[in-house]
Amino acid sequence: MNAETQQRILDAVDAGFEAQLATTRDFVAIPSTRGAEGPCQDMIGDLLRQRGYEVDDWHIDVDDLKDLRGFGPIEHDFSKARSVVGTYRPQTNGGKSLILQGHCDVVPAGPLELWETPPFSPVIKDGKMFGRGACDMKSGTIGALYALDAIKAAGFKPTARIHFQSVIEEESTGVGALSTLQRGYRADACFIPEPTGGKMVRSQVGVIWFRLRVKGHPTHVAFAGSGANAIMAAYHLIHALQKLEIEWNERAKADKHFKTLNHPINFNPGIIKGGDWASSVPAWCDVDCRIAVLPGWSIADHQKEIMACVAAAARNHRFLANNPPEIEWSGFLSEGYELTDAAAPEAAFGKAFGKVYGGAVEDLVFTALTDTRFYGLNHGIPSLCFGASGGEMHGFNEYVDLDSLKKTTKAMALFIAEWCGVEKA
Asked: Which parts form a coiled-coil structure per UniProt (predicted)?
């Protein structure tokens, strides 16, 4: 791809950026929390049809996925769950095929009064767009769409098959991405524009979600000593799991990538529910937890370690010793992923990055996870993850930096043109 072609594509990104932001704003305004992603999928389907893509929009059947590698259990109503894929088929086959994927699900906003602006009324100020999902990762998804638009606006068309995929459940199980693979979508490479601060994810953790179900013995609080407080017992188990977190972080010091980080394994008790009455010793407590694992670590083996840790802690507790807690696997059962055997797509992206940013792309050792794992681990498809800068993901006042978003869109456009090839339209 010559310099003139590159510049025409870059200029087209600039020319379309205001429209890109308007579309992003509309996308962020949809409150697509878990189980409510349908309107976002409708919007993506409409955008793809308007552009002439062949659209596949289907309901996800969990029974089709439950035996596949990386499946995580679904607990909520999944009857409306859908995946949407728009396919571009070239008239001339000259390049390599590509999957472009983004997720439209977002985490809950939390107490609205703690946001400076409403989370689903996106606001642009100080060079940033604020809103739930603006950074993670709706701006990246729309950026990928407008990267394709820029190639067309510059007077070119790709010479390889492209699947533009909008998935759900990235924040909790990953079964949306898994459903596209079960459906049969494949390509020579995958690119996911998660917000990585302009770095390429080299290695990422996996995640295990589990729920502690703790029993107690209720009494009137006036006679609390004769009862057993399930909430306090749950804290006893949490303290034990924090010690397991320390052990796993010691083990991480042997990993070639994660040894560079101080504390890559993070354990988080994220949801706690328990008790029925303030003047009653609580008879029950449920705690939903998350802990990371590193690439190459067995999910099954580390589930056993979690169970052994909880069982040992229970044996050292007056009430739990005879009333052991239960563990439920409540979402992610996801392996870590290291980007390997990806020299060709990395070289193509390196050219695009150099043109937009200058220099060489930096690696990122990522203490969260992305859907890239399914492509690399399940099917040997090299899966790149690179995106814009932003902040407060999963927190209040989430935002994406707009200058970085424009640069990311330019890099994606040039990468698509380099990897897939282009010809005059």
From this structure: none
Residue corresponding to tokens 């309901």: 59
For residue 222, the model assigns a pLDDT of 87
Contacts of 396 (CB under 8 A, 6+ apart): 110, 114, 115, 116
Q: What is the mean pLDDT of the chain?
A: 97
Q: From CA 216, how far away is CA 233, in angstroms rounded?
A: 8
Chain centroid offset of residue 276 CA: 35
Pairwise CA distance, residues 59 & 145, whole Å? 23
Q: How far apart are CA 190 and CA 200, in angstroms?
A: 13
Cβ 191 vs Cβ 361: under 8 Å? no
- Cα separation, 267 vs 280, whole angstroms: 30
pLDDT score at 307? 98
Q: Which stretch of DSSP H or E encloses residue 408? A: helix 402-420
CA distance 188 to 383: 9
CATH number for the domain whose boundaries are 206-334: 3.30.70.360
Give dist(CA 119, CA 397) in Å, integer.
Answer: 7
Return the bridge partners of 293, or none.
Answer: 206
Q: Which residues of the chain have pLDDT under 50?
A: none
Question: b/e map of 77-99 (b: 16 or more CB within 10 Å)?
Answer: ebeebbbbbbebebeeeebbbbb
Q: What is the pLDDT of residue 12?
A: 98
Residue 256 has a pLDDT of 96
